[in-house]
Write a structure and sequence with these properties.
Blueprint lengths: L6 E6 L7 H14 L4 E6 L1 H8 L6 H15 L6 E5 L5 H11 L3 H5 L2 H9 L8 H4 L1 H10 L5 E4 L4 H18 L7 E4 L27 H10 L19 H9 L2 H13 L4 H15 L1 H11 L2 H30 L2
Parallel strand pairs: 1-2, 2-3, 4-5
The structure holds iron/sulfur cluster.
């Protein structure tokens, strides 16, 4: 007897080149989860408009580049439903309906809201769309009646809001939506070259589609224990971003050795960074090969996305029928 898998939804915005933070923080997890859950994985292009609405000239190419990155990373269209969010009109339709029943204070109190406006001061994010971002996220999740959503710690308030919206809808119109649970990602925060969270907004990323040489160059820029001026100064690996990557990419024995050598001031940061850069570069060699194969047959990639669109559309339109019935529309 086959056991029905729980359903999962997740998305990533096409806001630029995919980087190690996306890859370690979300995508590796997707690759694993697609084996365990009935997965709907989308390129969330509508979401990217909330912050990039003033400059969309690269959006189309960013979407395709990201599709290549994800497929080359191991997203398998045989195991999951993989599609562009804007190809499914029901996301926008459900977003509109959910926005009718979402109180404004629920949105203004989301911690990331004011923080992000502050963080991206150079952009005008005082918009209706940006405030409603979590409602669009709720629509993305509820449209497929997801039971599980993989999230990092910083997205938990958004998911809690999705649950509140689902409960409110169910309370007003009858049970339509399951209440989704979170799965926390294994590497919630990946550190960028400047020591802050790796993010396109901070310009501190290591793009995964970089050559080994470029990865080594970026690794050499990475900050280390700031108290270590000379090679012989004893270091503190626990506060060093390079060491956080050593723990991911190096063997446990070597990590222990580096820790000891660093604390005794017996290994230079240049050597440590070079070693880390070359390990990261080597780990991405299969990815690069697969990506270039996919790139040489873009028609195949477009077909994968069209198939995903059809599968997603089927589930989305069934949910919207239920939603409209419940609302007596
Ligand atoms: Fe960081 Fe390595 Fe330098 Fe120690 S030796 S401070 S772990 S880069």
């Amino acid at each position: 007897m086959s056991i029905l898998k729980k359903r999962l939804v997740s998305g990533i915005q096409p806001t630029g080149q995919m980087h190690l933070g996306n890859y370690l923080g979300a995508i590796q997890n997707w690759v694993d989860l697609q084996n365990k859950y009935e997965s709907f994985l989308m390129i969330a292009d509508l979401h990217s408009l909330t912050t990039l609405y003033e400059g969309t000239s690269s959006l189309k190419s960013n979407k395709m580049e990201l599709a290549l990155d994800l497929l080359a990373s191991g997203i398998d269209p045989e195991k999951c439903c993989f599609y562009f969010q804007s190809d499914i009109k029901e996301h926008s339709e459900l977003h509109l309906i959910l926005s009718m029943l979402t109180p404004i204070p629920w949105l203004t109190r989301v911690p990331n809201y004011k923080g992000k406006i502050e963080e991206l001061k150079e952009k005008n994010l005082d918009t209706y769309g940006f405030l409603g971002y979590p409602v669009l996220m709720a629509a993305d999740i509820l449209l497929y009646k997801a039971q599980t959503v993989p999230v990092g710690h910083d997205q938990i308030p958004h998911l809690e809001l999705t649950r509140e919206i689902a409960r409110r809808f169910n309370h007003l119109y009858g049970d339509v939506f399951p209440i989704p649970e979170e799965i926390l990602t294994k590497h919630p925060v990946v550190i960028g070259t400047d020591g802050k969270k790796m993010s396109k907004s901070y310009n501190n990323t290591i793009p995964i589609n970089s050559s080994s040489e470029d990865i080594t160059k970026l690794s050499m820029k990475m900050i280390t224990d700031p108290n270590r001026i000379k090679r012989t100064d004893p270091g503190n690996p626990e506060i060093c971003p390079v060491f956080s990557f050593q723990k991911i990419y190096n063997s446990p024995d070597r990590v222990q050795e580096i820790e000891t050598l660093c604390k005794k001031g017996e290994i230079g940061c240049v050597q440590c960074k070079k070693e880390m850069g070359s390990l990261i570069g080597d780990s991405l060699s299969d990815f690069r090969e697969k990506r270039s194969e996919l790139k040489s047959n873009k028609k195949n990639v477009e077909e994968i996305l069209r198939d995903g669109q059809l599968k997603a559309k089927k589930t989305a339109s069934e949910t919207m029928k239920e939603v409209k019935n419940a609302l007596k529309l």
